Amino acid sequence: MSGTLAPEVLVLGASGRVGAGIVAALLEAGSPVLAVGRDPQRLQALAEAHADEPALQVLAGSVAGDRQASALARRIAGRERPLRAVVDAVAAPRRSARLLDRPVAALRRSLDEDLLPHLAAARHLLPLLRGQSIDTRYVLVGGPHTRNGWAGYGHASVSIAASRMLAQVLHEEAQALGVRLQMLAVDAPVWAADNAARACAGWHSALGVGRGVVSLLSSSSGAARGVVEFTPISTSGPASLLACDYAPVLRAATGTSGSRCG
């Protein structure tokens, strides 16, 4: 049965600002989406915002640690629709503080919240992409100021910078599983409807970041880098549907020639 269903993209952190933008961009591109987040109310609001999109399903879950990520992976493994990609947009709340003004435990907490969930997610979700008959991808969305410190946000600067190195190491290790893992490094804060009034020049839109994720997932470039710097693209719709990636699978399942993309 699963061979007749277009593969879906799993978005972690879908109830957050960036995650919601990624969900919107994927739906815009014609991809089925499984949106995962910790806040059931915000997930429900996300579903209501896309009530006319049958390709969207929401699932409450967490990747805060191994136990939670393992439980989530078991639930996803039992789904009928095959998994084509994972997009990790998990982000912790940003707390303003200088490193020298807070105890060491504050940095440990930041690493626990900002860094380790990405490792827990990769450990338990990457194996679900192994051995698929389609090209599978795993994308981490990196936060701002990974190269230069974020004034007043020392703890976040350290943990976000560490996530960049994590992505580079996982990029190499995921190759053994046949999965392309990359980070989309976003070099500035992100705005959406809820914080647009406070946004500054140079901030990126959440939908724009989502479209960058779609572009990365759709790329067929053979020479993949572990970290790809985000570049804002046109605010118009994507030039081609992400669903085009699934055309060979759909043609094989239905026994028809169908239309080709590109």
Describe this entry's structure for a reader.
The protein has 262 residues and is an alpha/beta fold. It is 39% helix and 15% strand. It has helices at 17-28, 40-49, 66-77, 104-114, 116-129, 154-174, 206-218, 247-254; strands at 8-12, 33-37, 56-60, 83-88, 137-142, 180-185, 190-191, 204-205, 227-229. The strands form two sheets. The protein has a seven-stranded parallel sheet with strand order 3-2-1-4-5-6-9, sandwiched between helices. Helix 1 (17-28) packs across helix 7 (206-218) and helix 4 (104-114) crosses helix 6 (154-174). The two termini are 28 Å apart.
Quick structural summary:
With 262 residues, the protein is of the alpha/beta class.
Helix and strand topology:
Elements lengths: L7 E5 L4 H12 L4 E5 L2 H10 L6 E5 L5 H12 L5 E6 L15 H11 L1 H14 L7 E6 L11 H21 L5 E6 L4 E2 L12 E2 H13 L8 E3 L17 H8 L8
Parallel strand pairs: 1-2, 1-4, 2-3, 4-5, 5-6, 6-9, 7-8
Helix pairs in contact: 1-7, 3-5, 4-6, 5-6
Gap between N and C termini: 28 Å
Strand content: 15-25%
Output the structural class: alpha/beta
Task: Give the overall pLDDT as a whole number.
Answer: 87
Number of strands: 9
Form type: globular
Strand order of the largest sheet: 3-2-1-4-5-6-9
Tally of separate helices: 8
Order of helices and strands: EHEHEHEHHEHEEEHEH
Radius of gyration: 18 Å
Portion in helices: 25-40%
- The low-pLDDT segments are 234-244, 246-262
Question: Can you summarize the main beta sheet?
Answer: 7 strands, parallel
